[in-house]
Every structure is written in structure tokens, then in C-alpha cells.
Amino acid sequence: MSDIKTIEGVDVRGKRVIVRVDFNVPIKDGAVGDDTRIRAALPTIEYLVNGGAKVILMSHLGRPAGEGFEEKFTLAPAAARLAELIDAPVAFAADTVGDDARAKAAELADGSVLVLENLRFDKREKKNDPAFCEELASLAELYVNDAFGTAHRAHASTAGIASLLPAYAGFLLAGEVETLSGMLDAPKRPFVAILGGSKVSDKVGVIDALIDKADTIIIGGGMCFTFLLAQGKAVGTSLKEEDWVERAGDMIEKAQAAGVKLLLPVDVVAADAFAEDANALTCSVDAIPADVMGLDIGPETEKLYADAIAEGSTVFWNGPMGVFEMKAFEHGTRAVAEAVAANKDAATIIGGGDSVAAVNKFSLADEMTFISTGGGASMELVEGKTLPGVAALR
């Protein structure tokens, strides 16, 4: 971690500082629906504002075509929400590197903020186009990356620009890298990793990496059925990846050989359809009927997992235990969230994505030690991959 330069202690007074933030927030009826990501960037923004910098913020929002302005993907509502959250003037540029952005960047006063329009309105952003990198860099004298959620992408605003200006990590990005790297390099033991989600193929690298690091690995979500198939069990119409059954079996053997406990469900809540009002039943994993699909872990599994979580001194969780978006199949995810929250002696780390949505849904976010803002980025870091946005700061 020490090889990443942070913005702390840098003299920013009177300097134009361009900051990559993650303002990719839900917008409904022209207003921000959830401002969590904007609030997460406040420590860095406020530090720069209080230090007398001229702060230029850039972000993407959604998936525009890259052919210019699209009303539904404008960052104007995010800029308006930021203005309500900080005690500093906030201006908004109608473009990213065009006339309006250049004019407003040039006239910024010390301690004020400019939000640029959506980076991805210009297709050169995702291509890490050198000319686009230079146009962004020309707006400022220093560069700060505080968007951990996009650090796994080698885009102009996350990687290319860092080679053109003195580059630093913001507090959010530095905290993410420090926490996740520390968890992997020197966890307090026992280290318990909980992995859910729908597909083994999405998590294979992460599971492999954690078998080398963790003491206990708990598997839930749709991907557990591929593991159960590898154990020779019938899984009915549950989600399964036939191509990954052998690989799942290899991971079970690898964990065994490494002395790592790999816990799989002993019972599931299954239903005759993927629907809130489907006919549901609880059954042992040794007796899943042929015409039903597993949509959550069962009560025996909840207890087994809660007991394992209670023993952890470091607990990392990424991925739900079932279809928690449907009330009928949220119980397993809620039980795991409550078990993680209840372990007050452990460092509890929530690894982005749906797990964050779950702890927010069950109002348990304040009970966790650390909540990552980056789903894909946190998983790639855990997997041991190099994140371009972080590497560019070294």
C-alpha cells in the first residue's frame, strides 16, 4: 500500500485538481435515488476544497452509446445533489472537454468545484484514447483517482491521464486498497470468506485465491448447485453450469488438501417457478425434487453458516445466498447479514455489489467494519489481478 501516493499532505492551494469520482448513481425523475457513492467521495472533495484547490470532478453514469449527449445519462442531477451536500460552490459543465468545460475550469475560484458532464458521452473515454487523455489533463495541474469502483478498467480517466499529471489516490480509493490488501496479506484468523451469487464461472478466480488465504469458505447462491452436482447430488431445475462441475469438484478437493473448510448448503428453499408467489418448500440437498429449483439456503444451512461466521476474526462477504430481491427468498441472505453484523469482535468486510444492496436493505450497513464501493474491482483485487487504476498511481 505504501507504494501508492495519496493526496494527503500535498499542497493544492490555488491548483486545479481533476478528480475521478464514481458518481454512477441511480437517477429517477431527474433526481438522485441513492447518494451513497456521492457521500463516499466527500472526504476527498472536502479535503481539496478546504485546502484551497480548484476542484474538477469527472465521472461516468450508466452506459451511454458514446455518440454525444443523452438526457437520461446526464450527471447534472449528481452535481445538484453534491451542491446540497457540501459547503462550497458547485458548477456544472455541459460537456467534458469542450468549450464549456474549458471556460468553466479556467474561471474556477479557489475552494470551488466543477462537475464535468458524463465521460462516456465521448467514446474515447473507454478506449483510453491518448488525445482524450491529453484534453482531460489540460484542464488541471494535478490528478486524483478516488473511484475504486472503476479502478479495474483501463480508461482515459482512470489510467491514461495518470501518466500526464502528478497522480495521487483519494482517501476512498486508498482506504479500499489498504483494507482489501490487508485482509488478504495479513488477516486476523480465523479468516472466513462467504461467497454467493449466481455463477461459479464468475467467481472461480476468487474462490481459487481464497482457498490459499482463508480458513473457512462458505458457498451460497445459485453457484452452490454446481458444487452440489460435483458431489453427485441431484439439483432439480436449479441454476447449474454443467461445464463447471468438474472445476467445482477440483476446488472442493483443493480446499480439502489445504485444510480449508468449504461449507455447502445442507438444505435449500426451493420453488416450482422463479417467482415471488411460487409454491415453495424446504428440502434437504439430498432430496431436491426433480421439478423444483433452489432459490435460497434453508434454515439448517443458515444455522451452520451463522456458527462458522461467529468463529471468524476476519469475515469477508461477497454475493447473496439466494434471490434476496424477492421477499419469499430473502431469508438466507438476511440470516447471513445478521450473523456478520453480530460478530462484533471480527473485522467484517462487505465486498461490493449485491452484498452491499443486501446490508442496506436489511438496515445493517452501520454494523459492518468496512463496505467496499467496488463490486468488480474488489473481486479482481481479491483474485490477485492488477487494477489499472491503482497501478497507474504507483
What does this structure look like?
It contains 13 helices and 17 strands. The protein is an alpha/beta fold. The strands form four sheets. A six-stranded parallel β-sheet has the order 5-6-4-1-7-8, with helices on both faces. It has a six-stranded parallel β-sheet with strand order 11-10-9-15-16-17, sandwiched between helices. A three-stranded antiparallel β-sheet has the order 13-12-14. Strand 5 (90-92), helix 3 (99-106) and strand 6 form a beta-alpha-beta unit. The longest helix is centred in the N-terminal third of the chain and has 15 residues, at 36-50. It is elongated, with a radius of gyration of 23 Å. 51% of the residues are buried.
Number of separate helices: 13
Residue share in helix = 25-40%
The biggest beta sheet is recorded as: 6 strands, parallel
Q: Per the principal axes of the C-alpha atoms, what is the gross shape? A: elongated
- The percentage of residues in β strands lies in 15-25%
Unreliable spans = none
Q: Radius of gyration in whole Å, from Cα?
A: 23 Å
Mean pLDDT metric: 95
Query: How is the largest sheet built, in terms of strand order?
Result: 5-6-4-1-7-8
Structural class: alpha/beta
Distance between the termini: 9 Å
Count of DSSP E strands?
17
What series of H and E elements makes up the topology? Answer: EEEHEHEHEHEEHEHEHHEEEEHEHEHEHH
Brief summary of the model shown:
This protein is an alpha/beta fold and 394 residues long. The chain has 13 helices and 17 strands. The strands form four sheets. A six-stranded parallel β-sheet has the order 5-6-4-1-7-8, sandwiched between helices.
